[in-house]
Amino acid sequence: MPRKDPCQKQACEIQKCLQANNYLESKCEAVLQEMRKCCARNKGRSICCSGFEREEREREKVKLASEGISPPPQ
Question: Rounded to two decimals, what is the model's pTM?
Fold first, then answer.
């Protein structure tokens, strides 16, 4: 039996919040932050986190670039 995705609950909460708020992300910042925290705790173990992990990698690239540091090759 497959294991339950550790961040599925947070992913469902995001969907509920977005639907209830006409898909305005700004209204769902708290649940989005909970998802980011869950993804950070479960790196590589949650399929629900793929977009959040990609977002984090992009944010890190921007940070390194602003500091004048070349990002590592992927």
Answer: 0.74
